[in-house]
């Protein structure tokens, strides 16, 4: 009858459960962090340390969080926590963007439903409603961000609508006003006829749009050569609505042009046999196809430069468009499509505007802010630009100017808020000059002095700054910081008086910028030095990108617990044209450098196939709440660090399932460590010098990982660190070290040096691993820390998050040992493969039944000399042979052809305690035990007596 020795085995014991239950447990951990005021503890603890400041780019306060928010905020939290645990003072202050159209639209929507007109509402009352809307969503988003485990100063975040922020925004704009770089001008800007305001580049997105295309004749009125007389220049455009604003035609000086004489045309063609058309030579055949010209001849060829001095009539000459239309050289003209000519409407295009300015052409004002042609526009007054195409075609046909028309589906600018198409429209706006004070050069130098991660970000933003026009900072809306500007009625010049600007900024700081819209504001701010009747008060607001671009001035500079410049800015890659861009210009324009030392970008979230972005319209949206309510926020956090976020990230339920498997591997590793450290004390600890080689190899791996962790944190490369930690847990620990040492930990005597050494290493591995994982899976790491270090009396102020990463001594490094164990592990893999094959063939049950014979090269056998190879291979015996030829049927692992294994059964009986098959089992005092187990059980019996 066998004896049950189970109670004599040191089995794992821990309260750390295998099943995480994160959705239930994480809110409890959050509550504990709040009770202990973890954020304030970290600030007090790290006071005086080197600062690492990640400045938060403000999300917009107008809805529940989406997965893009989660990606961004989790990544920020991982970075901040990691640098805090690197021994720095990594203070994180979250913020919100509050002004602008999305909120204004929501409030207007309420008015429309009630049949009210927003313009009839007192602006101060309207702005109050906008502010309350933003406050509501800030409170909601704050709770949601904290649910993701993000730690920061949630009690004192920053907002762009805070009075102090509005005052500082006014001061920053005043700096540009006083140095002369802020000016009023009329230029074409991206304009939303739906929202009735100018838009910044960062507020524009591109969608497919179907446009009417037209080919139009511009009759040549005056030509520098006879070949052009009585001919017409043909233009092609996808924006027929801009034709009333036409004032010139552009050509390419190096392009070859032809005078094409029509000799035959299709019955339905608008081309006329005998007429002469001027077109780029490379596009002549295409024009014939588009216009239904069935036969033609080339009457003349000439380079574009020969068009100098050519003047055309407008197609509607004699119908109110009786002005010359000169042909002008333009370096933007190409032969990619169209006719090789570009019709120029200086009020409706960037290139058009600058070409007109260069040649003294006045910019016509043709379209109002609502998209309607103004009353003075001949033929089309009152028409809407997006509905006028049929009328344009009719008017062109009436005068014989239309050569052809069609349609084109192409990428077209739209508002990112209303999703409505935009127009370029000439409007009076306030601009910051890129040239007057050298802002462009300063910004380019600052870009070169900044660390960009990935490095491609530098080139991207540099190309934008090199070519960007002056910055339009005014908007024709109500919810925002008003431009603190008075304009002298007689001279048209803005008032540049620092005393007045200070008075305005101080008032904004004390009362909020609503005071600008209250009665008597002009008299109050101008004071006694200026007559109010001599000045106009500007009611435009500052564009919101200036608001957020100035955050560093009223957050980083204003708080003693932060610093300027920031160590890091981190947002999506679209912010090269958004927040990174505007912050750069504000910093360089007022302080001479960028407000950041480094900039990190992440990609966007795609569906699981990586084919399209997540969107509600496509039905592929998963919200952060969906995940944390089901699986827990730590799964989301692990997804973020497991992905290469320098590129776009795939996301979906199957991916989350894979992440869940990785999480379980990490959790089970922590659980194994905790279970086998039960009862461990300092008295049990073994000095490194007295440890077996296997333990010293594990410490060498910890040294490796420590170096990697610090490098990855510096490089913001958490994807690599996560993969290495996962591999360490799965391969180095679970499949190797834990597998080998399980026998010693379970079955050796409590005071056996080998078991003590193993438990010492488990303690070190636990301490390092739980800290390295803390920035990633912050809830689980804290739970694992409490499972070992929590107060048994119930005090709950212990946490891993106020610890730093352990200092790994260089004495743990042992490259020679690592090289030796690389060979040992290779041999072990071959043995493991042979054992698995034998089990599959049912020639073997457990690996401890085996006695493998291993044929290996001499250097591999030599590397194994002196090591307990049977223990390492988890067999009961083993034989290594470095000479002779192995049997032909010996097992060889793919990739390890030099190691051959023959598996036989071990001799002896199975020990009823450790399960090894040994010859001496049954020859000792206790039935069914081997010598080692007999001794251990004997000592336990004596101790019990």
Give a verbal description of the structure.
With 945 residues, this protein is of the alpha/beta class. The protein has 4 domains: 10-17 and 649-813, Isoleucyl-tRNA Synthetase, Domain 1 (Orthogonal Bundle); 47-181 and 433-602, Rossmann fold (3-Layer(aba) Sandwich); 208-419, Isoleucyl-tRNA Synthetase, domain 2; 823-944, Isoleucyl-tRNA Synthetase, Domain 1 (Orthogonal Bundle). It has 27 helices and 32 strands. Strands 6, 7, 8, 9, 10, 11, 12, 13, 14 and 15 form a 10-stranded mixed sheet that branches. A 4-stranded parallel sheet has the order 1-23-24-17, with helices on both faces. It has a 4-stranded antiparallel sheet with strand order 5-4-16-18. A hairpin with a 6-residue loop joins strand 31 and strand 32 (917-918). The protein is elongated, with a radius of gyration of 38 Å.
How is this fold's topology laid out?
Elements: H1 22-35, H2 38-45, E1 54-55, H3 67-85, E2 95-96, H4 101-113, H5 123-147, E3 158-159, H6 163-178, E4 182-192, E5 197-198, E6 204-222, E7 232-237, E8 248-251, E9 256-265, E10 276-280, H7 284-291, E11 293-303, E12 311-313, E13 324-329, E14 342-344, H8 350-358, H9 389-398, E15 402-415, E16 423-432, H10 439-449, E17 451-453, H11 456-467, E18 471-472, E19 474-475, E20 486-488, H12 498-511, H13 521-526, E21 535-537, E22 541-542, H14 544-549, H15 551-554, E23 568-572, H16 579-591, E24 598-602, E25 605-606, H17 624-630, H18 633-642, E26 649-650, H19 653-676, H20 693-715, H21 718-747, H22 753-773, H23 778-789, H24 815-840, E27 850-855, H25 858-864, H26 869-873, E28 879-881, E29 891-893, E30 896-905, E31 909-910, E32 917-918, H27 931-944
Parallel strand pairs: 1-23, 2-3, 7-10, 8-13, 17-24, 23-24, 25-26, 27-28
Antiparallel strand pairs: 4-5, 4-16, 6-7, 6-12, 6-15, 8-14, 9-10, 9-11, 12-13, 16-18, 19-22, 20-21, 27-30, 29-30, 31-32
Helix pairs in contact: 1-23, 3-18, 4-5, 6-12, 10-11, 10-16, 17-18, 18-19, 18-21, 19-21, 19-22, 19-23, 20-21, 20-22, 20-24, 21-22, 24-25
